[in-house]
Write the structure tokens for this entry.
Amino acid sequence: MFEQLGLIGCGLMGGSFALALKRAGLVGRVVGYSKSTDTTARALALGVIDVVAASAADAAAGSDLVLVAVPVAATERTLQDIRDRLTSRTLVMDVGSTKGDVIQAATRGLRERVGCFVPAHPIAGKEVSGVDHADADLYVGKHVVLTPMPTTLAPQLRQAEQVWQALGARVVQMAPDAHDAAFAAVSHLPHLLAFAMMHSLALQPQGGDYLALAGPGFRDFTRIAAAEPTMWRDILLANRHDVLDQLRFFQQAVHSFVQRMEDDDGRGLADLITQASNTRAGWSMASFTPKT
Amino acid sequence: MFEQLGLIGCGLMGGSFALALKRAGLVGRVVGYSKSTDTTARALALGVIDVVAASAADAAAGSDLVLVAVPVAATERTLQDIRDRLTSRTLVMDVGSTKGDVIQAATRGLRERVGCFVPAHPIAGKEVSGVDHADADLYVGKHVVLTPMPTTLAPQLRQAEQVWQALGARVVQMAPDAHDAAFAAVSHLPHLLAFAMMHSLALQPQGGDYLALAGPGFRDFTRIAAAEPTMWRDILLANRHDVLDQLRFFQQAVHSFVQRMEDDDGRGLADLITQASNTRAGWSMASFTPKT
């Protein structure tokens, strides 16, 4: 399907994409670039990439598919660096968790080539990062949200859908602002709350003693608090408008509970908990049906 | 060790205690009472109890060990009902998640027999409830917190420690108020927040669409929101003072994050997340070393 993948950023996400593409026989060769030469050397040794490029621009040159899998903060600069190497038929995608900021970066960074760009968010990951954990199965059965821009070219959008489907992912299309609101609600805000939970204990002299008594409920509730700080700083800043909107809804919900507790309103409190409990019990992961 | 266990409330917690005690060969017979006759019949059929009692008082009569494993709201009434059947040597325990309220209930309900009572909180449970899920292994390797009262008799306290240890549990002694503060911090508040997270989505017209996109992070963060409503209503009301105290610490922590997001303070935000992430990564469950 593709002659050459230019992989910019050879970490967990990018490395897994390259491995999956190779396994599916969908790519001739993979030219990789990472900021760290250790990473590219490791990616080469692991067979994730076939050729090491000296720069992002070199990785993009001659590639009909370019995956930009760098920290969100580096996206605009990276797109700027590769712009002159793209043709009108290149497909360029990212893998970021926020889309509004990436679209701004692409508009500024790619200029006349912005039509090549299909913003993509694969809902996949691991507790660990780095090319050593790259996994051809990472995207199998996972959702990939594409948030095309008005400028996005139809052939690129079609190709983007096809390549993710060929890797076993379930492709969903959303408007960028709907994407950012949805993930603020179900991912970014929960991370902020889990971080805050850990801080809340750190604020108290007995916090360490309390932690020592915590059980499996606490373990699961705070698992996401161990996430990678730089990535989450970028996400919380990039999507802060939506995250703070979601926080307002959350605080409204907390207030309902507090009021019933303060009023000793057992019946009202039981009603609230029952609704929450039923909603959670009735939910199961990845129930989204893509609109066709 | 014991001639007769009077089991009042034959659910998951009580049933598991009876099964464990039998397996360890520590009890002659188990006389059980439940509010629902279906439950007692089932407990009898499963071999959890040997004899069905017609009332809580009948279950306590002649028992040298009484376990009250009823909803917290029913504790005082139950203790009142059994008071006249206790001797100065009976050991009476509960299994409730909050201790301040249970101690008040015991003081009022048991009066001159309150010395028999050792407040107990086994940190164990399952996603499912009911005698059908009773399990002789439920308490193995788990913490059991005992919160003796000033009136608690020394022989009963010693026996309580011994019996839980014999079942494979790790016994910890704490002051009742320290217990309630600790579990407000690491269990009750997290539950309230998980309930509120589900409500926060329910407050929004697109909440259902958002939920459909949620992934494994959300799944773990909200797992405890599916908890049993009546039990959690009782816990949140019984321990509301401590839970609201903990909520104030939590809100202070949330505010730190919001401030840095609003100020676009990437460095400060990364510092906060790094601290949270390190605390969580450094934590492991059940690290508590009981004071000897």
Observations:
- The two ends of chain A are 23 Å apart (CA to CA).
- The longest strand of chain A covers residues 2-8.
